[in-house]
Design a protein that fits this description.
258 residues; alpha/beta; seven-stranded mixed beta sheet
Length: 258
């Protein structure tokens, strides 16, 4: 018999990685029993291609170990989140390619009874971005990419439309990006809005949960999460492997990173 009552699958990039402590606290407030949490995230993470950011290489979300872990794991009620979907635009992927990767992962998750919550592309933020703001953000976040802002906007509109079509086709819940969640940086949620944004997302994942007050993680749990590393990665060309789950919280919830 499994030690868990439920499973949470989280797929995304840097927004998800930055929010892990807040997100873990919110998840525990929503589901007051031990969970198996599986996370594929990371700075610059792609749904379809391996990535390398600041010397750290990660496999694509589509080829990482999260899927084998799901196949081997116990049968559990499963909720899932798909976010940071527009990240691949900056790597030159087309809207068709990205939506195909997302469709593949939606189908995979459906085999475990999960109807993933899909976070839309933050179109309003992209549309209101000036050329000089874009160039500064691009040079910091994607210094080797030279995609024009007009091309980014066109692809983002097309991708968002395709995401909505996928959501309708599979009867999936959709989250609108928080309009006040982004500042100068058009990709990352502002620190001051992070708690509220993720609290609202978790409330959607666990419909009916009331998350008025969320106690933060304990010091021991924060340290355990800070030490967590993904199952496989390459650092400055050297392969690194880490046993999963990477962290176990005091509640009994385990967190595996991929």
């Amino acid at each position: 018999m499994s030690e868990f009552r439920s499973r949470v699958v989280l797929l995304g990039a840097s927004n998800l990685r930055r929010a892990l402590p807040t997100l873990m606290a919110s998840l525990q407030a929503a589901e007051r029993s031990p969970m198996q949490i599986l996370v594929a995230c990371g700075h610059g993470r792609s749904y379809g291609n391996p990535t390398r950011v600041l010397g750290v290489e990660l496999p694509s979300i589509g080829t990482c170990g999260i899927w084998d872990t799901l196949m081997r794991g116990p049968a559990l009620p499963t909720v899932a989140l798909l976010t940071d979907v527009g990240n691949d635009i900056m790597y030159g992927a087309s809207a068709g390619e990205i939506s195909a990767w997302i469709a593949r992962d939606i189908e995979r998750l459906s085999t475990f009874g999960a109807r993933p919550l899909v976070v839309r592309v933050p179109l309003v933020t992209i549309e209101r971005l000036s050329s000089w703001q874009y160039e500064i953000a691009r040079s910091i976040l994607y210094p080797t990419r030279r995609i024009p802002l007009t091309a980014v906007r066109d692809c983002a509109r097309d991708l968002d439309r395709r995401l909505l079509e996928l959501a309708r086709e599979h009867d999936l819940p959709v989250v609108e990006p928080a309009l006040d969640g982004y500042g100068f940086d058009p990709i990352h949620i502002r620190r001051g809005r992070r708690d509220g944004v993720w609290r609202d997302i978790v409330a959607r994942l666990f419909e009916g949960s009331e998350l008025r007050a969320i106690p933060g993680l304990s010091g021991a749990d924060r340290r355990s999460l800070a030490r967590a590393r993904p199952e496989t990665r390459r650092v400055l060309g050297c392969a690194r492997a880490h046993e999963q789950p990477a962290a176990r919280l005091s509640s009994g919830t385990t967190i595996s990173l991929f």
